[in-house]
Amino acid sequence: IAGITQAPTSQILAAGRRMTLRCTQDMRHNAMYWYRQDLGLGLRLIHYSNTAGTTGKGEVPDGYSVSRANTDDFPLTLASAVPSQTSVYFCASSLSGRVETEKQFFGPGTRLTVL
Amino acid sequence: GQNIDQPTEMTATEGAIVQINCTYQTSGFNGLFWYQQHAGEAPTFLSYNVLDGLEEKGRFSSFLSRSKGYSYLLLKELQMKDSASYLCAVVDSNYQLIWGAGTKLIIKP
C-alpha cells in the first residue's frame, strides 16, 4: 500500500451498534487525525495522535474513541452509534504533527450512515 | 467565535482565470492552507501561506493578507479537471486547524 487506506469504504449501521473505522498509513508519519465532513460545514477534528501511544481530543470527540498502539494504525470507534454520526469520515496523517507548517495527507474516506 | 468564510459555489469557463476568496476571523493566526477536493474523494494539499504576499505554484497561486484576514486562491488556464471543491483552512493561536466549508468550482466548456 502507498499512503493512507481506510476501511470500510461505506457502511450502513443500525443505531446503538458499535462500529470501528480502520485507518492505516505506510508513510511512517508520527501524527494522525480523524475528521468528519458534513454538508455545508468544514472538516471537524474528532481525535488526533501526535505519536504512537498518545491521543488527544479534537473539536467534536463525544461518542468517539481512538487508540494508537503503533505508528501505522489509528482506528476510530463509535461505541453506540446515533443518527447524528451519519457523515463522511476522513483519516489523515502528517510527518510530525506540526499543524502550523505541515500539510496533511488524507485517506479516501468512509461514508457512514446510521439509521 | 472562529469563522472561515468562502463562497459556496462559483462557475468559470475553461481556459479562463478564477479567484476564490477566503476571509477568516480566528483567535490568532499561524498559517493558512488551501486543499483541493474532487467529489467523492479525499482533500489534497495545494498551497500554504504564513507571510503576506503571493505564493505561485504552476497554474495555482495563493495570496495572503494577515492584516485583512484575507486570502485568495487564483487558478489560471482553467481545465475541466479543476472542477472540485477548494477548502481554506487556518491555524489559530492554539495551533488548531479551522476549516472553511469549501467552495465548489464548476468549470464549463
Could you list some keywords that capture this structure?
heterodimer, A: 115 residues, mainly beta, 7-stranded mixed beta sheet, 4-stranded antiparallel beta sheet, 44% strand, B: 109 residues, 6-stranded mixed beta sheet, 5-stranded antiparallel beta sheet, 57% strand, globular
Provide an overview of this structure.
The complex is a heterodimer of chains A (about 120) and B (about 110). In chain A, about 0% of the residues lie in helices and about 45% in strands. In chain A, about 35% of the residues are buried. Chain B is an all-beta fold. Helices cover about 0% and strands about 55% of the residues of chain B. Chain B has no helices and 11 strands. In chain B, strands 2, 4, 5, 9, 10 and 11 form a 6-stranded mixed beta sheet that branches. In chain B, strands 1-3-8-7-6 form a 5-stranded antiparallel beta sheet, with no helix packed on it. In chain B, a hairpin with a 4-residue loop joins strand 7 and strand 8. The model of chain B has no long low-confidence stretch (mean pLDDT about 95). Chains A and B meet through strand 10 of A and strand 5, strand 9 and strand 10 of B.
Portion in helices of chain B: under 10%
What number is the mean pLDDT of chain B? 96
The gyration radius over C-alpha positions of chain B equals 13 Å
Q: Helix count of chain B, per DSSP?
A: 0
Query: Which regions of chain A contain 5 or more consecutive residues with pLDDT less than 50?
Result: none
Give the class of chain A from helix and strand content and strand pairing.
Answer: mainly beta
Mean pLDDT of chain A: 96
- Oligomeric category: heterodimer
What spatial form of chain B do the alpha-carbon principal axes imply?
globular
Instruction: Indicate the percent of residues in helices of chain A.
Output: under 10%
Tell me how many strands of chain B there are. Answer: 11
Radius of gyration of chain A: 13 Å
**Order of helix and strand elements from N to C terminus of chain B:** EEEEEEEEEEE
What summary fits the major beta sheet of chain B? 6 strands, mixed
Count of separate DSSP helical elements of chain A = 0
